[in-house]
Amino acid sequence: TSLDRLFHAVAHEARRDMLDRLAAEDLTIGALAEPFEMSFPAASKHVRVLESVGLIERTVEGRQHRCRLRAATLEPASAWLQRYERYWMDRLDALEDLIARSDDR
Fold first, then answer.
1. Can you give the pTM of this predicted structure?
2. Mean pLDDT by 10 residues, the chain (105 residues)
3. Per DSSP, which regions of 1-105 are E strands?
4. Contacts with 17 (C-beta within 8 Å, 6 or more apart), sequence order
């Protein structure tokens, strides 16, 4: 499914880092590769994965490939994760109660 492909795309640390940095500004593939000291072809491969699920769009300006984040594509993943937020909030509330009771002793 598209959700499976989306989670696969963000499963790699380098791709998550690329998305984080693209949230701040548009970057070239070379700039996306820099922190990982990876080659242009390796970075381009990661960009293609992100591009294939619609998380980024790439424009070519001469020899430069500039990437832009399309964060709205993450909405299905966010909606899926939010279904479990109540579970975690309930667990945190229980932990808070436990800590409060132990402080009262």
1. 0.78
2. 91 96 96 90 95 96 94 92 81 79 75
3. 27-28, 56-61, 64-69
4. 35, 36
